C-alpha cells in the first residue's frame, strides 16, 4: 500500500533538526505504520566545518533511530548556511500506532546526549556547542478515513422450501440502502433485491430447482451496504437451513369412456362402459412438492400396468375385454423418489352378441302349435332370444323368413315375440308343398348388431313328407327318408356309418382325409337333427 509523507522540524540555537517520515495506513486494522526515512541538520551561523551527530529519535514511546556521534558515523560537511544536510538515512525500525480514522495523532521526539566538547564537532543535543536542540516532541496528524461500517443481517435458523424467509437488516445508518444476495455453498451469489432498507421477504420457491433431487441444504445470504452509490462494505454471510418437505399427491384420477360406436355414443351421452366396445381415457392429476419434478406416472388396469412414463393423460387403444367392476390405479413418483398412489373403479356393462336359446319351426296343417310332418302345408315358428341389456340401453328382437331349399330368401320377414308360448305362422297365405323341403332362417339382432348389419342367424330345415326312398321324375338324384329335391343323394334320416367313407384321392389329395372336422376333402356334412 502506498504511504503518505511528512516531516517534523525542531529549531534551536544556531540551527535545527528535521525528521522525515512515511505513514502507511491500514484502514481495516485501524492502524498507521510510521517509518523514519531520514534525519537532516541545518546550520544558521557556521559553515565550512565537519559535523558528527549524536542523539535519538522517538515515535511515541519507541526509539527508532540511534546516533552515537563517533567519528566517521553520521558525519557530513557543512559548506553553507541555512541548508539541510542529511545526518542519517537509517530506517531500521518502524512503529505501528492506532488510527481510529478521524483526528488520530502520534508524536515524534528528538533527544540528545553528550556535548560538543566530547566530540569536537557538530552535535544534536542539549549541550551542543553550536547547534542546540532541547529535548522536544512534535504532534503529527495521522491519515484520516471514513469510519462508516457496513450493516449486518439476520435470517431465521431454518425454514421450509416454499415459505417466505425474512432477511432483517440491522442498518448502521438510516440513510443506507442495501443489496441482498443469496447462494449455496460452491455456487455464485445471486441478487435477490436492491435498495432494501430494513428487511426483505425472500420467497424460497426462487431456489426450488436446487432441491429437485435433495431434501435439504443451507441457503446463504449477504448484504452489500451503500451510501448513495458508494459501497460501504459487505456483511458476513449468514445462512438458514432449508428443508424441502412433502410428498407428491394425486389430486385427481378420472376415467372417461371413449366410444367409437355411434349407437353407444347416444347412450347416456356416451358416458358408459360397454364390454368389447369402450376404450378408456385415464387422466391423472398430481401435485408435486416445490423444487421436485415428476419422475414417472404408472397407470394400471385390473392390476396390469398399461402405461409407465411421464404421460398423465393416457387413452387405451383396445376396447375393454371384461365386464364388472374394474379397478384403475395410478402411482406418481417425484424426482426425490417419493410416491403417491390412488385408485378408482368403473362399472363395465357386459355385452355379447344376441342369440336364440330356443329357435324352432314346424310344418302344421291347421293348428300352429301342432306339428304335421306328413301333410302340413304351413310353417310356424317361435324363438326365445338372449341379449345384453347394457343397463337398459340395449334392445333386441328376432325375425324369421323361409325359402324353398335351393332358393333365395325373400326380403320380407315375420317378427316373432321372444319367449312366446305359441308358434307364429310365417308363410302367410302361401300353401307349401309336402314334397319339397324348406329352410327357415331366424334373424336375431340388437342395437349394436342390427338386422341389416351383422345379425345372428340360425337356420332350420323343414323336410318333405316322409318316404323311404324317392327319386324325382326326370332328375338325377335320389332321397332316403323324404322326397328327392336335388340332383344329389339326400338323406332325410339319421345315418350311421359302420365303416370308412372311401373317397377318391382326387378329392382330398394324397394324404388320408381328416375326420376331426365337418369337412372331409370336398364332402360337406350339415347336421339337421
Summed up:
With 529 residues, the protein is mainly β. It is built from three helices and 40 strands.
Descriptive overview:
It is a single chain. This protein is mainly β and 529 residues long. The protein folds into five domains: 138 residues, Sandwich (Immunoglobulin-like); 92 residues, Immunoglobulin-like, CATH 2.60.40; 101 residues, Immunoglobulin-like (Sandwich), CATH 2.60.40.10; 108 residues, Immunoglobulin-like; 63 residues, no CATH class. It is 2% helix and 48% strand. The strands form eleven sheets. Strands 13, 15, 16, 18, 19 and 20 form a six-stranded mixed sheet that branches. Strands 1, 2, 3, 8 and 9 form a five-stranded antiparallel sheet that branches. The longest helix has 4 residues. The C terminus is likely disordered.
SSE arrangement:
Layout: E1 4-12, E2 15-26, E3 31-43, E4 49-52, E5 54-59, E6 62-68, E7 75-78, E8 84-88, E9 94-98, E10 105-111, H1 116-119, E11 136-141, E12 152-154, E13 158-160, E14 164-170, E15 177-183, E16 190-196, E17 199-203, E18 216-227, E19 230-234, E20 238-243, E21 249-259, H2 262-265, E22 273-274, E23 278-287, E24 294-301, E25 304-309, E26 313-315, E27 324-334, E28 339-349, E29 355-364, E30 378-386, E31 396-404, E32 414-416, E33 424-425, E34 438-446, E35 456-462, E36 469-470, E37 478-480, E38 489-491, H3 505-508, E39 519-520, E40 523-524
Parallel strand pairs: 13-20, 22-28, 37-38
Antiparallel strand pairs: 1-2, 2-3, 3-8, 3-9, 4-7, 5-6, 5-10, 10-11, 12-14, 14-17, 15-16, 15-18, 18-19, 18-20, 21-23, 23-26, 24-25, 24-27, 27-28, 29-30, 30-33, 31-32, 31-34, 34-35, 36-37, 39-40
